[in-house]
Design brief:
single chain; 4 domains; 57% helix; alpha+beta
Amino acid sequence: MFDKLLPPWLAEENARRSAEIDAGAVSRREDAMEETAEDLLAILAPDWSESPKASKKLLAEGIRTPYDISRLDKEDLRELGLNMAERARVLNWSSQPTPKVMRQTSELGLTPQHVLEMGVPLARGWGDVSTRNMRSATEEKRLDEIEGQADFWCTCFATSENLLPSCLQDVRENILEAFFDCTPERVREVFAGMDTDSDGRVFTVVELHDGLERCGITSLDHSTLSKVFERVTGAGKMLNLQAFESILCRLRLARLLVKPLQANLSVVDYTYSKALVKQVDEENMREFFFGHRPAKVDENPVRWVHMQNFNLTLLLALTVKYCLHPLSVEDVIEQCPTKIDRFGQNFFLAIEMLTVLDHSAGKGGQPVRVCGHHVTAFCSGPPSLDTLLTVVQPDRNFSEDWPGGVSSRAAFPAKCGAWPEKLQQRLMAARSRLRERRADFLLYTVVDLCADELVAVARAYLVRLAWLEEDLRTYGDRSLLDLGEVSLARLQLGVLARRLRSLQRVVRRASDYADLHSTGSSDYWKDCADHLEEAHDDAWHLSQRCEALQVAHEQVMEKKTVEQLRRQSELSQLQAEKVNHMLFFLTVATTLCTPLQFMSSVYGMNFVNNKGLPTIPFLTDQDGYRRFWIGVYAYLAAALIGASILYYRIHRGPLRHGCCRRKEKSLAGEAKSENLCMERSGGCSP
């Protein structure tokens, strides 16, 4: 019946495959209850399956079930030896939302119609596929319900064990890989060690105990493990890989969340039509970590989980819930430099952020104050692209890396950076284009918003330097410009340029990941790279402006120094002239009084004759005393007139002395004004 619907070449290929199966050329396992990876590849990649090395490659790589094939990417399939068409078929099958690979690792989740849509030759043994799919859906729903029973899992531990070290050294080896590694590779490795007969199933509690002990869960007794085994297996009484993964993850979550924690997570679930925001607190924390996101048949929601304040316990819980790689979690804890990397099917991003603290000081009147924080993001890879985790924490090395350190006034705020609020507003908008895309475009939006924050820092320095230049040009040596601030700004711009360059390399490397452009975001990544290149050039240009501003300030101060020396020289000259004037007057007065002193000393002598009478003339004269004073006054008048004539002849006119006094007062006033300006500049300098 299906051969009539196939193209001629597919019909011929199907007939050929049927003839080979009937003739026994291909040995294929047909089991109504279980299909293997080799069976699936015999349908999707028949040419490759005919190779004698196909089975050996699958066995060497540990690929046994269709679930293992669904976790492979294009590079893994190329290493196995599949050609381009076969890789396209396998990737198309693994990316189909309905029907999908169920939790049972032995079920393919394929129908005849699914095979027809992919254009894959139809083989025998498909008569009971729909029945198995129906049973798989029921089993998956039952397993989801068991995983969501948080109280059951938490009762397995009486108290939570303290797994967090006091010092975060070698945290990956001692903590992450030992207790919280839930990656598919690690789970398959442990399950392979439990499955001694390599049939993909575990039947005893002892085998489960051995597997959990390898994963660091050693505090459960036999009775507790028996309850867990019975609850998960149900009537089947056996564990497959997916069931073991559910037990391992839920027990690790229960050990972390048995005691209530102060959660600070915001969760946004959105589709193309709406977005729902909720806060994870102590009341609904277990429901979030143990449960699954609600999803309708016709919708595939995307989830954004944001941690504003870093909490190690919550980070470990997210590590277990979303199977994060230990290397990426270690980068979050140790705050790695700006980078983007891929671990398995997931992408990891880290950004060293800078944010302006004083957004109100946009006119440049105050120095630029910056805080640093560390942003990390986990994005689920294709084909789902349905989850994005972001973590924001203060940059612990910011005080050492940032020139000038962090002053007491610039303490790290509770919320540094406005990009989470902007991103949430975009998701909640009435006609949001962001909701129409997947998590890869949401990751780009986070990078773009972080780039805008760095660009805002560069613009803040641009405004501040422009204000200082205008102040220097307007007030000259009386400017409030501080040379120390300009030198420090130049060093800070160097750090800003380095972080812009690091983020630019991340954006360029992200452009090379074709899986990150499934929703047409390639052009957006290139546009972000262009903005970062422009911002980097601006930071370098601002650094050069700082150097030019330093030179201009030095020239102004040098000119001011020369002017001050000139004024001091003139003031010293005026003071010397003043002293000379004083000495001149003293000399003239002394000269004028010397004859009077001589006459007074002569007439004060007691020279008498033999009769005892004074022998000095005019002493015995009746008008001698009056004549003496007349002579003194006449002498003083003549001497003063002669001295005045001599003084004015020497100093060239009577106005020179007054002009010198006024000039002296002017210079003294200017000096006093300069001192006041210097005191003002010293008191008000940034």
